[in-house]
Amino acid sequence: MSLSGELDTEANSGWSTLSEDQSRCAVCEQVLTDPVSITCGHRFCRQCITRYWEQPAPSGHYGCPRCRKRFRTRPVLLQLAEPNDDARGSENMDVSLQRAIVNHKASLKRRYECVIEGLLKAGSQTPLNRIYTELYITEGESDGVNDEHEVWQLETACRTTTSHDTAIHCNDIFKPLAGQERSIRTVLTKGIAGIGKTVSVQKFILDWAEGKANQDVEIIFVLPFRELNLIKDLQYSLLRLLHDFHPELDIGNAEKLAACKAMFIFDGLDESRIPLDFQCNKMMSDVTQTSSVDVLLTNLIKGNLLPSALLWITSRPAATNQIPPECVDQLTEVRGFNDPQKEEYFRKRFRDDEDLANRIISHIKTSRSLHVMCHMPVFCWISAIVLEHMLSTDKRREMPRTLTETFTHFVLIHTMKDQKYHGKDEMDQQELMESDKEVLLKLGKLAFEHLEKGNLMFYEEDLNECGIDVKEASVYSGVCTQIFKEESVLFQRVVYCFVHLNVQEFLSAVYVFHCYTTKNMDELKPFLQATRATSEELTLHELLKSTVNKALESKTGHLDLVVRFLHGMSLESNQKLLRGLVTQTESSPESVKKTIRSLKMMQSTNMSPERCINLFHCLIEMKTHSVQQEIEKYLRSEKRSKNLALTYCSALAYMLQISEEVLEVFDLRKYKTSQEGRRRLLPAVRVCRKALLADCQLIEASCELLVSALSSNPSHLRELDMSDNDLLDSGVKLLSAGLGNPHCKLETLKLSGCGVTEEGCAALVSALRSNPYHLRELDLSDNHLGDSIVQHVSPGLEDSIWRLEILRLPGCKLTEASCEVLASALSSSSHLRELDLSNNDLLDSGVKLLFAGLGNSQCKLEILSLPGCKLTEASCEVLASALSSSSHLRELDLSNNDLLDSGVKLLFAGLGNSQCKLEILRLAFCEVTEEGCASLASALKSNPSHLRELDLSYNHPGDSGLRLLSAGLEDPHCRLEKLNVERGGQYAIKHGLRKYGCVLTLDPNTAHRNLSLSEENRKVTWGTEEQPYPDHPERFQDFDQVLCREGLSGLCYWEVEWSGRGAHIGVTYKGINRSGRGDDSGLGPCDKAWCLVCCDDHYMAWINNKLTTIPSPSSPPSNRVGLYLDWPAGTMSFYKVCSDTLTHLYTFYTTFTEPLYPGLFVWCYSSVSLCQVVAPVSKTQHDVSL
Question: What pTM value is reported for the model?
Answer without folding.
Answer: 0.58
